[in-house]
Write the structure tokens for this entry.
Amino acid sequence: MKDKFLINIVPGDTFLHKLSGSTKVRLFVVLLVFITMSFDLRLILPVFVLTLIGVISAKPNWKQVKVIMSVVIFFNLLNIFLFYVANPTVGEYWCNQLTIIGQLNNYFVFPVETFWYLFVRLIKMLTNFMVSLWFITTITPSEFAAGLYSLGVPYKVCTVVSLGFRYIPDIARDYENIKISMQLRGVEMDAKRTKISERLKQMVLILVPLIITSFDRVQTIANGMDLRGYGRNKKRTYYCEHESTNADKIFQFLTLLLFIFSIGYIMGVNIWPPQTNMWCPIDWR
Amino acid sequence: MKQPLIEFKDFTFRYKSQTEATLHDINLTIYEHQKVLILGASGSGKSTLAHCINGLIPFSFEGEIKGSCRVAGIETINASIFDLSKQVGTVLQDSDAQFVGLSVGEDIAFSLENENVLRKEMLTKVLDAATVVGMQDFLAAVPYRLSGGQKQKVSLAGVIHEDVQILLFDEPLASLDPAMGKTAIELIDDLYKLNQKTVLIIEHRLEDVLHRPIDRVILMDEGRIVADTTPDELLVSDLLLTYGIREPLYLSALKHAGCEVLASDGPCDVFTMDLSRFEDKLKAFEDRYVASIDKQFSQKLIEVNDVSFAYDKTKVLKNVSFDIHRGEKIAIIGKNGAGKSTMAKMLCGVIRPDEGQIRINQNDYLQMTIKELGEMIGYVMQNPNQMLVKDIIKDEVGLALKLRKMTDEQIDERVSEVLQICNLHSMRNWPVSAVSYGQRKRITIAAILALKPTVILLDEPTAGQDHRHYTEILSFLKELHETMNLTILFITHDMHLAIEYTDRAIVFADGECIRDDQVFRVLSDPDIIERANLKQTSLYSLAKRIGRTPEALIDQFITLERQGKR
């Protein structure tokens, strides 16, 4: 079994890892709202920088992060490019003006506002990614469950999360075993020798015993949990959820401020009066 | 006067899905601070009895109950499983499935979490419980890093902080290697002595449980209690034979030597039983010993030469060399993680050596594909459910042939031939899901035999099976060996299997092949036994007690057992 997943099972020892689950879950939710609510680079950029620092400080497994990061960056660039192709003058809608500085033909014009909008959009998407990455690399599944529970999510839902992570490696091991036994009986898994359609069919063949073995296990797990009183009370506590430290209190306070600010911003800017303008640093006219 | 803790009165239980009752007229009283073994073959109803005590019946398994069952004064039919869980701590057979936490600490805390205990109190309670079972240094460890024995200890720690009165162990030895099993039995005994608890052990491996004293044995068969006695009385009766429980090896040896053991000799412990009456007979028995001749095999089938392999940086196989000849039966022995399974995967071609060579039937193994190797070496996995993919038995057995693009007539012919050999022909159109575990095992073997391999490799073929099924499977394999001249490799923890059915043992420890010799010599070498996490057999102890060399006695015993089997 691989030693290091992107997700930690065991709590790490950096500052962000040591925050309690509920602090991290709250901050994550509020940050997502904060990022989503605006196209204002003055609000987004600080979050981008801070979460970038956060990710670096959490010392994740860079090899895996790099893979994911390059995929995300690639798709975001593609997204931006397609946005431009779909409507090269999209910036007019957001900035109420259009300053064309060149053109390829009548359709593909180069307005500064469109480039600005696309740039902000890219940063916004990357920030979203950084917020998620920061969250994923610093939280354990159990802390996540505890954090969700602290937000009022029923604990049976939370258990699904942590239990799922618990049995992923077991299922992976079953899968590996079944795959081996199929290969030995003559199912060709080599990508070079079989067509994709064939391989998909063979995947289905593996899934049958995998599902059956997993279902066998579910009954035993359920019994084991019943025997230890799971589901007896409406409330439960979490072993991994430590008492708030000073750092937790400060972070929770900041999260609260950010939350209030976001609510205010959404009320004032997004809802009434509805605005579609975005902030531009320079007036290009 | 001891208080009754568990009381069954005219108790009968039938599962909702079955027409026949599983438990019949159970009348049983177990008192405080007793250590009771509930013994019985598979299907004897012993696990059902356990479920009645811990409340899974009727909470999780519906059915019809007649009569009364009181546990710690609670009538279980009215009680919730939660009330009972305060009285009865259950350690399940499958410690992997019972491990729901993402770390040792979390798993031990699980029942406390459910009780809404404050985290501050939880920390000390978890640490205390972990200390009792000796896992206090592993609180942050993840389940995939633990051995089966360690997981079981965690399961145990997870139920003892409730201050339960009764500890219930459901087949605690099933998934452990011999040395771990021994430790588990010792730990259970320590807990029993220390905490004045009542201990119930559900098992069919009598000799291993008797490693530590037992007050009382309840023998079950077909849903009824057939004996309620002391271990000493049980061992000298013919009950074991009648109900398919394996007799301890040392007692079989004494019988071979012509000794008649009585309950007053204290036969439940090989170290303390009174041997004075038998010493002469035993010595005479050993004097008749003629060393068995090493069987000679001429044709080399597999040559493994100086093979090393690593998944990442650490080598899991280090310079391993051995030969396998056509027609041999070999036990591959060693603790978990010693490299046995890696070696098996390598022989099948799933992984290939980093260094060294393997030749199979004079051919270069590296030139052969997995598919070609699959036709030479059949690999039967431990869990048949991981191998079965088709709905109908016939199709399952023919799958490998179909994948090799044989015609339907050829497939039919080969499949019915194999099904006949495996005694499954009458069931050929049955759905795979309708047959028992042992029959599924047979189907997997048939599916492998359909390719007509020269070697079959069985991973723990007897794990979790009682003596009757064990004998059934192994005599079947023995027959195959004789009729088809198969070469059979067993990967196993089971020393009985190695003793009775194999010619040679290859022992692995830490990725090295530390011994390659006849079984009786391996089992007479204390150093090997320790390094491979095996357990001293009771034959060894018996020989030591009469001051003779264990090698001769073990060899003699094996020879006689095999003759007796024929």
Q: What stands out?
A: The two ends of chain A are 61 Å apart (CA to CA). Residues 196-227 of chain A form the longest helix (32 residues). Chain A touches chain B through 56 residues (CB under 8 Å). The CA atoms of residues 4 and 61 of chain A lie 7 Å apart.
